[in-house]
């Protein structure tokens, strides 16, 4: 069962997740991050640290967000990996 | 300028994340590990039926391959080398020894055969050389696991798994054989507080609840919440508790199905004593009541008790860092006092001495938690080294020191040979690897000697 980043990250990109990811499986574009299911070890360390609850276990994914499984799997491998926290996009973010 | 040299003691996740950060800053790292094999609890803690998590070793292998890092396996600090001498020889010393000792419960009967700590039991099924040959009585139908964390669920799942579930894993061969012959069919898991305070994660409970041939049971009255627990459950950060509670309610509501293997979850239940003459024959369990405000609830015994017959009790109630000579310890919390990774004694920083991982934070957190932790410690080392002349002797080589003491260490190439040998043995048995558990076999394999294969 994949772990996926969803809509709530878009325009936010706090990247708390990146700091705790042991496997370096996060990739980013200018709007948000994505998880590469090929390198993710499914430890779920990232789920509770996301300040906007954007990350889900596929098991718990609300139906309306189900498209994000495919989006993560296809976008992540095309984008550069991020291993360090990035400045958040939202003004006033932590 | 000459590169500073730092020694890291331990080779678990926190050691690797600290090493990665130090290497990036141009620091040379000697990693010293008491076992012939690296990776700490990723090898000896993470359950054999969770291969995806174990795949994190691929990331550690990359760090291990870095030219600035040297691996010294089979070298124990406190026995072969001491902390004070290492602190003199290096520009910094990072302790990353984990917390391997099982915390005691402090109840009557705890010392009886048949009473085991989770660290020992887990080490046994994962092929940790310290726990090979552990006496695990599996002849009685019922076993009890104390604690409500993810380790407790690992222990319960391994005790209840039918042999074919574990056949294609890297479980230690002797444990696999013992578990295949096990008569245990019913495991009782005791949480001293309520379902809202359970510290296992919903994903692990869900996994158990879906296993073929294993029925999970919980009494509806154990899921009743008092007002303070209800408030705790509704708190913004209680996502995991809400998921767990939902799952537990589904489990309690499901029509009971007969199953050959059963897991009974108990809440507000704490062991009062282990019973038996000469060996564990049962456990006395005390009912508890929760007190205190939401998010800070504690359990106190009500005085009501009940007994369960069982032949094995595994306590999975946390770990402690064993004392290391020359290092301040806090016996109560089981970790080393520190400020951002700098070891302190009575509040004062001991220059040059650092700590990371479970030894720094205490025995909690997943593999990923060790990444920011190891980085924080490494950054403290780097900040303290900045602008100071490199002190370590450029001619010093740990190899030479160890050779002088006749300590046979396992280097990176030695580990590669052990790894290749274990994978080859595993391939024959249809497993990802067949772990070598005897130190002599591990050392023989490290030297590329064939007899290793004969004694797993
Ligand atoms: C049973 C169990 C299962 C777990 N499963 C998971 C899981 O599925 N997913 C997850 O994310 N997390 C899991 N964890 C948590 C994870 O393993 C820890 O967060 C992590 O291993 C802690 O890293 P560490 O570096 O502090 O310690 P450790 O991994 O314990 O490494 C310490 C290392 O130091 C060495 N050492 C100790 N003393 C000395 C000495 N004197 N000299 C030299 N070397 C020494 C040890 O041999 C060991 O290799 C589990 C933990 C346990 C106990
Ligand atoms: N699959 C995974 O991701 C995985 C697998 C294994 C381990 N891990 C991680 O490794 C860390 C360690 O796991 P853990 O299970 O050892 O720790 P844990 O989550 O801290 O659980 C310890 C349990 O022991 C109980 N306890 C402590 N003292 C007790 C006593 N005297 N009597 C009765 N119960 C007592 C605690 O109850 P109280 O809450 O009441 O104190 C708690 O339920 C955790 O962070 C865990 O998530 C992760």
Automatic annotation (TrEMBL), chain A:
Named from the GO MF annotations, one term is: 4 iron, 4 sulfur cluster binding
Q: Where is the 4Fe-4S ferredoxin-type domain?
A: 1-30, 31-60
Q: Which cofactor does it need?
A: [3Fe-4S] cluster; [4Fe-4S] cluster
InterPro entries xrefs: 4Fe4S_Fe-S-bd (IPR017896), 4Fe4S_Fe_S_CS (IPR017900), 7Fe_ferredoxin (IPR000813), RnfB_subfamily (IPR050294)
Keywords, sorted A to Z: 4Fe-4S, Electron transport, Iron, Iron-sulfur, Metal-binding, Transport
Is Iron set as a keyword in this record?
yes
The protein's job, in short, is:
Ferredoxins are iron-sulfur proteins that transfer electrons in a wide variety of metabolic reactions.
- Give the protein's recorded name: Ferredoxin
Protein species of origin: Xanthobacter tagetidis
TrEMBL record, chain B:
Give the cofactors, semicolon-separated.
FAD
- According to the entry, every stretch annotated as the FAD/NAD(P)-binding domain falls at 5-197
Which annotated residues bind FAD? 14, 33, 41, 77, 358, 365-367
SUPFAM superfamilies attached here? Nucleotide-binding domain
Q: Specify which residues bind NADP(+) according to the UniProt entry for this protein.
A: 148-151, 192-193, 204, 365
Q: Gene3D superfamilies annotated for this entry?
A: FAD/NAD(P)-binding domain (3.50.50.60), NAD(P)-binding Rossmann-like Domain (3.40.50.720)
What are this entry's molecular-function GO terms?
oxidoreductase activity
Which UniProt keywords are given for this protein, alphabetically ordered? FAD, Flavoprotein, NADP, Oxidoreductase
Entry's family note: Belongs to the ferredoxin--NADP reductase type 1 family.
Q: What is this protein called?
A: NADP oxidoreductase
Native species: Xanthobacter tagetidis
């Amino acid at each position: 069962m994949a772990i996926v980043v969803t809509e709530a990250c878009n325009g936010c990109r706090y990247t708390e997740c990146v700091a705790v990811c042991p496997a370096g499986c996060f990739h980013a574009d200018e709007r948000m991050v994505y998880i590469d299911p090929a390198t993710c070890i499914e430890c779920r360390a990232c789920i509770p640290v996301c300040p906007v609850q954007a990350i889900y276990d596929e098991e718990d994914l609300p139906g309306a967000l189900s498209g994000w499984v495919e989006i993560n799997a296809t976008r992540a491998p095309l984008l550069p990996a991020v291993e360090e926290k990035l400045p958040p996009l939202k003004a006033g973010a932590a | 300028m000459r590169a500073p040299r730092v020694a890291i003691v331990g080779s678990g996740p926190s050691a690797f994340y600290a090493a990665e950060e130090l290497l990036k800053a141009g620091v040379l790292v000697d990693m010293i590990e008491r076992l012939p094999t690296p990776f700490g609890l990723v090898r000896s803690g993470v359950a054999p039926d969770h291969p995806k998590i174990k795949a994190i070793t691929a990331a550690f292998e990359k760090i291990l391959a870095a030219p600035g890092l040297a691996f010294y396996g089979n070298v124990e600090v406190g026995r072969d080398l001491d902390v004070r001498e290492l602190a003199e020889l290096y520009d910094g010393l990072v302790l990353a020894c984990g917390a391997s000792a099982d915390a005691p419960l402090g109840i009557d009967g705890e010392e009886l055969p048949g009473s085991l700590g989770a660290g020992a039991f887990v080490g046994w099924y994962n092929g940790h050389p310290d726990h090979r040959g552990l006496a695990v009585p599996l002849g009685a139908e019922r076993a009890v696991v104390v604690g409500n964390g993810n380790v407790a669920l690992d222990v319960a799942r391994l005790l209840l798994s039918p042999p074919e579930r574990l056949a294609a894993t890297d479980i230690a061969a002797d444990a696999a054989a013992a578990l295949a012959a096990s008569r245990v069919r019913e495991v009782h898991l005791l949480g001293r507080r309520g379902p809202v305070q359970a510290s296992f994660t919903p994903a692990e409970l869900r996994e158990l609840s879906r296993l073929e041939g294993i029925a999970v049971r919980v009494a509806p009255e154990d899921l009743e919440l008092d007002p303070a627990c209800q408030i705790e459950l509704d708190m913004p950060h209680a996502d995991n508790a809400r998921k767990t509670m939902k799952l537990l309610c589904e489990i309690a509501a499901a029509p009971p199905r007969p199953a050959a293997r059963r897991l009974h979850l108990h809440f507000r239940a704490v062991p009062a004593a282990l019973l038996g003459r000469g060996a564990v024959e049962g456990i006395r369990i005390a009912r508890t009541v929760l007190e205190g405000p939401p998010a800070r609830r504690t359990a106190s015994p009500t005085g009501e008790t009940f007994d369960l017959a069982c032949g094995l009790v595994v306590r999975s109630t946390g770990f402690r860092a064993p004392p290391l000579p020359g290092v301040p310890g806090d016996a109560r919390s089981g970790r080393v006092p520190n400020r951002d990774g700098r070891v302190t004694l009575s509040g004062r920083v001991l220059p040059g001495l650092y700590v990371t991982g479970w030894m720094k934070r205490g025995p909690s957190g997943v593999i990923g938690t060790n990444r920011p932790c190891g980085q924080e410690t490494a950054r403290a080392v780097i900040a303290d080294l900045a602008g100071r002349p490199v002190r370590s002797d450029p001619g010093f080589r740990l190899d030479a020191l160890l050779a002088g003491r006749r300590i046979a260490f396992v280097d990176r190439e030695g580990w590669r040979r052990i790894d290749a040998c274990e994978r080859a043995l595993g391939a024959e048995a249809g497993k990802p690897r067949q772990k070598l558990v005897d130190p002599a076999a591990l050392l023989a394999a490290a030297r590329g000697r064939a007899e290793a294969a004969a004694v797993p």
